[in-house]
Amino acid sequence: MSEQKKRSGETTRKTEETQVRLSILIDGTGKSHVETGVGFLDHMIRLLAGHAGFDINIGAEGDLEVDDHHTCEDVGIVLGEAFREALGDKSGITRFADVAAPMQESLVSVALDICGRPHLVYDVEYPTEKIGGFDTNLVEEFLHAFVTHAGITMHVQRVRGTNSHHIAEAVFKAMARALRTAVAIDPQSADTIPSTKGVL
């Protein structure tokens, strides 16, 4: 984006359970530095950054002696807040996108609308309750926190899959590619807000 200011957001969150610092550059190159203390979450966010083309930097400390829940949820919250800040009034964005992403035997579809109305439909089952030490139900918790604070409607569906790790990767890769398309500037309406109401 040579003529348009690059879209970025930065936010922090501090509670009795976690401390999270995060910055995002929407118009980046997919670089990331992610340290949340939850290894699998770090892996998924790096995938998200790389396939979306976002630059994401996260540092988090949480009550991992309890479990990973608070950290995963709060990182999702902060990522959503920074994403929403980075998009501003959403002028010129494509807004809608849908992607089906394969990961070996797994296939996941994601359809989303950056509309300001948060909603998550998550139709994903995993054959195991854990991926290593990571609870698979935390993927949904992270996504719910993210879309709520980013203002996104998102539908996620597992089409097929037998390996929990592959299914989760397909979720994040499909979401990443959908976000990449949805935030892209539409050259036919680069200066307008993509809504018949005039606001998102």
List the helices and strands and how they pair.
Elements: E1 8-14, E2 18-25, E3 32-35, H1 39-52, E4 55-62, H2 69-87, E5 96-103, E6 106-113, E7 119-123, E8 130-131, E9 134-135, H3 137-150, E10 153-160, H4 164-183
Question: Describe it for me?
Answer:
The chain is built from four helices and ten strands; from the N terminus they run βββαβαβββββαβα. With 200 residues, the protein is α+β, with helices and mostly antiparallel strands. It has one domain: Imidazole glycerol phosphate dehydratase, domain 1 (Ribosomal Protein S5, domain 2). The strands form three sheets. Strands 1-2-4-3 form a four-stranded mixed sheet, covered by helices on one side. The longest helix has 20 residues, at 164-183. 42% of the residues are buried.
The total strand number stands at: 10
Question: What share of residues are in beta strands?
Answer: 25-35%
Within CATH, the superfamily carries the name Imidazole glycerol phosphate dehydratase, domain 1
Determine the N-to-C terminus distance. 22 Å
CATH architecture: 2-Layer Sandwich
Quote the CATH topology.
Ribosomal Protein S5, domain 2
Main β-sheet: number of strands, strand sense, barrel status? 4 strands, mixed
**What series of H and E elements makes up the topology?**
EEEHEHEEEEEHEH
Poorly predicted spans: none
Radius of gyration from CA coordinates: 16 Å
Q: Tally the helices.
A: 4
Structural class: alpha+beta
Strand order of the largest sheet: 1-2-4-3
CATH class: Alpha Beta
List the domain count as a whole number. 1
What would the principal axes of the Cα set say about the shape? globular
Helicity range: 25-40%
What integer is the average pLDDT? 96
